[in-house]
Amino acid sequence: MTSIIQQKSIQHHPRLGIEVLQGCNLTCLTDIQIHELKTSLWEHGVIVVRQQHLSAQELEEFARQTFGNLMFGGPSKPLDPDISPDLQSQYVNILGNPKGLDQEPIEKYAWEWHHDKDRIPRIEGLEMNALYVVMLYGVEMPGEDIHGQPHTTEFLDMVEAYNNLDPQRQQQLEQMSMYHLPPIFSKSADVATDVPMKVHPIVSTHQVTGKKGLYLGSDTAIPVGMEDRPEEAKHFWKDLFQTVIDRTPVFSHVWYPGDIVFWDNSQVMHRGVPYDATQHQRIALRLGVVDNQSIQK
Ligand SMILES: [Fe+2]
């Protein structure tokens, strides 16, 4: 198994997945190191910081100081007495089976390709093009997935996906927008339910780098003009995504405990890979934050 992990971990992608701040502790970065981390994130879409030992509270504090106000979660979230307090914080979600091998993971929707931005479509005043960053911290990770391969999260570079399209197709998509729904409809208190679906161009321009990339959301997205034709909308999305996946190499991050992967949902899609939760424990802390410090207005 070790040799497979080593073999897969040395794969390289021209843009995604670089390791940054080697040997650093995220809880005590200098301003220069934080600048380096954010610059790398916008430039590379997916970055990795390894060998971290953070509590959920420390992860949350790091996110607040580095990116800005946290927007999801809140003080009403109760502590779960069956889970270590070190793994719990108001804005941090625990993924996997933190209560043991008999606990079925609930995040199966994450095994389909999507951009996160889960709740942005239903939050008033927040644009779809906001710089929504996800931090995923692997506290305990399975040794393998259900196929016996190293446990990974997979990523697609949507800048590369745009660049790989024919010029004609690029021009056609530049004229189009889609309505977006969250992959899961959430009724939690911090999400308004009466906000109309938000519209976003399919070809979107990154707010910091200015690069063009495709923004597909998830397969619930509906092209403007196809609101009354759900079958056609679904077909459009699937056909476009098939073109993307046929032409764009997938980057797989092979997980080691202590890794924190950051990704920029503006121009990166991702999916999780299923694992056998009766055989392996997976404890991952996830935190989503909208950066409000990087854009010079
Ligand atoms: Fe996700």
From TrEMBL:
InterPro entries tied to this protein: TauD-like_sf (IPR042098), TauD/TfdA-like (IPR003819), TfdA_dioxygenase (IPR051178)
MF term (GO), any: dioxygenase activity
Keyword Oxidoreductase: yes
Residue ranges crossing the lipid bilayer per the database entry: none
Family: Belongs to the TfdA dioxygenase family.
Record flagged with keyword Iron: yes
Naturally occurring in which organism (per UniProt): Dendronalium phyllosphericum CENA369
One Pfam family here: TauD
Swiss-Prot/TrEMBL cofactor(s): Fe(2+)
Domain TauD/TfdA-like: 22-285
Keyword annotations of the record: Dioxygenase, Iron, Metal-binding, Oxidoreductase
Signal peptide residues on this chain, from the entry's feature table: none
Protein name, per record: TauD/TfdA family dioxygenase
Entry-linked SUPFAM superfamilies: Clavaminate synthase-like
Organism placement in taxonomy: Bacteria, Bacillati, Cyanobacteriota, Cyanophyceae, Nostocales
